[in-house]
Amino acid sequence: MAKRVCPRCGTEFADSSRFCNQCGAKLVDAPEISIKATQRTISSSMINYRLGLVYYKKGKLDDAIAAWEKVLKMEPDNIEVRQSIEKARREKEELTKE
Same domain for 44 and 5? Predict the structure, then answer.
């Protein structure tokens, strides 16, 4: 049976689990995925998420949305990021109405 690894938190599983029991993310087969590659993905998504927060707080909504969309490419099931994007888009729309 192939080793499985959580793309979000990096937890490894030797069984046939489909979802991570640590964070709930969908597991992927990982015979050739290294822990370092997983850690880079986690770090990159966290950096982009936080960068989006900084842009959002500074009122740079387009930049915030772009940063968060990068996170969604790595973590398509991240509800928090989807909600942040929706909120920023609504605020951007309100600003254009004024």
Answer: no
